[in-house]
Design brief:
Radius of gyration: 18 Å
CATH architecture: 3-Layer(aba) Sandwich
Strand order of the largest sheet: 1-2-8-7-3-4
Order of helices and strands: HHEEHHEHHEEHEHEHEH
Distance between the termini: 50 Å
CATH class: Alpha Beta
Structural class: alpha/beta
Protein name: ComF family protein
Shape: globular
Strand content: 15-25%
Largest sheet: 6 strands, mixed
CATH topology: Rossmann fold
Family: Belongs to the ComF/GntX family.
Length: about 240
């Protein structure tokens, strides 16, 4: 019955794989496999000051790039589950994952309000929610804390170089008042869909460190995880 219903829906509302465009499926097996690679530590060059240890599930190229763009820009929200599972794998791979050692707090890097309004959703927050559900299914206590906000307008990052992105984002994020206490209630992992220059994660880390009541304890061991990283950052796996 379920397959029959999908056939009818496919005729009325045609879909295509978010990775390769194969018709009549939102995500084909081949593209899903691209998200199942072994996560690794990633480092952009140059590496921004304050960037925590980051793990990524895949390189931002080919089908993975297409899937992230389809989810973010074209509203392929059904891809959030697969992208969230990949993010969960990156979280587990990082040193921020410690099994039963307290609750994992996934803190998504926020999109600009203008971008969120234009897309109709916040991609990083949606993927973080899917990752949290995946981690909970594996027995890890996990919460999503959307406690970061932009306190000033920033320019569109597209077309900006590494240094320009750092300047653009410097001091742009802040922890909301209610988040100060919450950040001290578990192990904090910053999460995003993509790492390119690392400027966004470095600024998020600065804001969390500045805006937490946890001091140098939990927040001092900040880690980060992303679905994908630029191919150059993914290839440079320096421990």
């Amino acid at each position: 019955m379920r397959d029959w219903w999908r056939e009818i829906v496919g005729l009325v509302l045609p879909v295509a794989c978010g990775g390769c465009g194969r018709p009549r499926t939102e995500l084909c097996e081949g593209c899903a496999a691209g998200l199942a690679a072994e996560p690794r530590r990633v480092r952009p060059t140059p590496e921004p000051v304050g960037l925590p240890v980051v793990h990524a599930a895949a390189a931002y190229e080919n089908a993975v790039r297409a899937m992230l763009l389809a989810h973010k820009e074209r509203g392929a929200l059904g891809l959030a589950g697969a992208l969230g599972a990949a993010l969960a794998a990156a979280v587990r791979a990082g040193e921020g994952y410690a099994g039963d050692a307290g609750t994992l707090l996934l803190v998504p890097v926020p999109s600009a309000r203008r971008a969120t309004a234009g897309r109709g959703h916040d991609p990083a927050r949606r993927i973080a929610a899917a990752a949290a559900a995946e981690l909970r299914r594996g027995g890890t206590r996990t919460r999503v804390l959307a406690v970061l906000r932009q306190r000033r307008a920033v320019a569109d990052q597209a077309g900006l170089g590494a240094r320009e992105r750092q300047v653009n984002l410097a001091g742009a994020l802040v922890v909301v008042d209610r988040g100060r206490r919450l950040l001290g209630e578990g192990r904090v992992v910053l999460v995003d869909d993509l790492l390119t220059t690392g400027a966004s994660l470095a600024e998020a880390a600065r804001a969390v460190r500045a805006g937490s009541d946890a001091g140098d304890g939990t927040v001092g061991r900040l880690r980060a995880a992303v679905v994908a990283a630029s191919p150059s950052a993914f290839a440079i796996n320096r421990n």
